[in-house]
Design goal:
Elements: H1 7-17, H2 19-85
Transmembrane segments: 20-39
Subunit structure: Part of a complex composed of FtsB, FtsL and FtsQ.
Protein name: Cell division protein FtsL
């Protein structure tokens, strides 16, 4: 009787004969997966960067508004200081205040 190897035995013996080709095929598959992972990470980081840029823009707008508010408040305190120092004006106390009612 003639011995016929099974398909699995044929595949295994063929793979063992071509070790270098098998190693190259595994390296190509590993390289393909690393390209897929790198592309995915790049897309995630690009999306995060865009989100952070939007947040930065919002914070810049808020900063400008706070600067405007600070300048407005500084102007009021400057006017109060000039009125106190140069014009000798002071805030009225309760006994000097009068309420005027309109008919």
């Amino acid at each position: 009787m003639i011995f016929k190897p099974s398909l699995l035995q044929i595949v295994v013996s063929d793979l063992l004969k071509h070790k270098f080709t098998l190693l190259i095929a595994v390296a190509v598959v590993a390289s393909a997966f690393s390209v897929i992972l790198a592309t995915h990470e790049t897309r995630l980081m690009t999306a995060k960067r865009e989100m952070l840029r939007g947040e930065k823009d919002n914070l810049d707008i808020e900063w400008r508004n706070l600067l405007l508010e600070q300048n407005a408040l500084v102007e009021h305190s400057r006017i109060r200081r000039i009125a106190n120092e140069q014009l000798n004006m002071h805030r009225a106390t309760g006994k000097y205040e009068q309420v005027v009612e309109l008919p």
